[in-house]
Design brief:
Blueprint lengths: L2 E11 L5 E11 L3 E5 L6 H8 L7 E6 L2 E2 L4 H6 L1 E4 L11 H11 L6 H10 L15 H13 L5 E5 L7 H16 L3 E5 L3 H7 L2 E6 L2 E7 H8 L2 E7 L15 E4 L4 E6 L5 H15 L4 E8 L2 H17 L1
Parallel strand pairs: 3-8, 3-9, 6-7, 7-8
Antiparallel strand pairs: 1-2, 1-4, 4-5, 9-10, 11-13, 11-14, 12-13
Helix pairs in contact: 3-5
């Protein structure tokens, strides 16, 4: 699969020395959904702004559609769509006029059939002649997406697209995103709802303090970094983990009444070890009255990565 976007050594330092991007390397495959995860202030929006021409980098190179964006930014921008975090339009204008205007702004000829198609796909057609100020927050967010889709971009950035949107509207938006992928649109999204990235993304990248910590296929990341966690509720408290169980990654919680296992590698090893551990507890006459197990989510992996890097930086 060829790459639609290549970022090499990208840097952005603001006045005062704040480094928002620090030697970022990133390749985006054509036709994929890529989720960029990171805490607030990690550099996600700055990275998007640099590709979309809204932020001027202080170093590095960006190639979009095989062209250097610094030399061919107008042509590249025509093929890129952006749904920013902040709502941005004339609140007194009508929905359909704003979407038409956005299409024209990118040099596209008028196409009422296409405008109607976009508005209907986002359940906005019935609201087309309503002033934007009269819409709910979720519907305003849909208008932002309609504006971004109006010129049929090949590469679409969604910066927190479902922030402040209720569950029903969020579901509708993700259906629309899935339909765009089916048409071959490449989508890069940031989101605070990590379960959405787990559901939709083909690959995931984690960024923190302007640096990319990890990029991998979602399933491969889950396999390599996923863990199994098991909590054994003990019938009798222990003051320490018995030496006979030292082969397992164990510790005690809740004043010795809960034996906790955290291990495995996302390949099923953890589940097998928990089963073996349960048998060893019985053989050692350690009675337990309850057992709860869970597998790592993408959110667990994300939190662990960010916290580990922060801990390293503090040392």
């Amino acid at each position: 699969m060829d790459n639609i976007l290549e970022i090499r050594g990208l840097q952005k330092t603001y006045k005062g020395g704040v480094k928002a991007l620090d030697q970022v390397d990133l390749s985006i495959r054509r036709g994929e959904i890529f989720a960029l995860l990171g805490p607030n202030g990690a550099g996600k929006t700055t990275l998007i702004g640099a590709v979309c021409g809204l932020v001027r980098p202080t170093g590095g190179a960006i190639e979009v559609f095989g062209e250097d964006i610094s030399r061919h930014w107008k042509a590249a921008r025509r093929r890129i769509g952006l749904v920013p975090q902040e709502l941005s339009f004339d609140m007194f204008d009508k929905v359909i006029r704003q979407v038409r205007y956005s299409r024209g702004m990118f040099g596209c000829p008028p196409d009422e059939a296409r405008i109607e198609e976009v508005l209907k796909s986002l359940s906005l057609w019935d609201k087309r002649n309503v002033q934007i100020r009269e819409l709910s927050g979720g519907m305003k967010r849909r208008v932002m997406i309609a504006k971004a889709l109006s010129h049929d971009p090949e590469l679409l950035f969604l910066d927190e697209p479902t922030a402040g949107v209720d569950v029903e509207l969020r579901r509708d938006m993700w259906r629309q995103i899935d339909a765009l992928r089916a048409k071959g649109v490449t989508i890069i999204l940031t989101t605070h709802y990590i379960e959405e990235a787990e559901e939709m993304a083909d690959r995931v990248g984690v960024i923190n303090k302007g640096r990319i910590l990890l990029v991998d296929d979602k399933d491969a990341m889950m396999a390599k970094l996923g863990r199994t966690e098991a909590h054994f509720t003990l019938a009798t408290p222990l003051d320490r983990v018995p030496g006979s169980l030292s082969a397992y990654p164990l510790h005690l919680e809740q004043e010795g009444t809960c034996l906790v296992y955290r291990g495995g590698d996302g390949t099923g090893k953890g589940k097998r070890e928990v089963a073996d551990l349960a048998q060893d507890l019985v053989r050692n006459n350690i009675q337990f009255t309850g057992l709860d197990t869970r597998e790592s989510t993408l959110e667990d992996i994300f939190v662990d990565l960010v916290e580990d890097k922060q801990a390293e930086a503090a040392v």
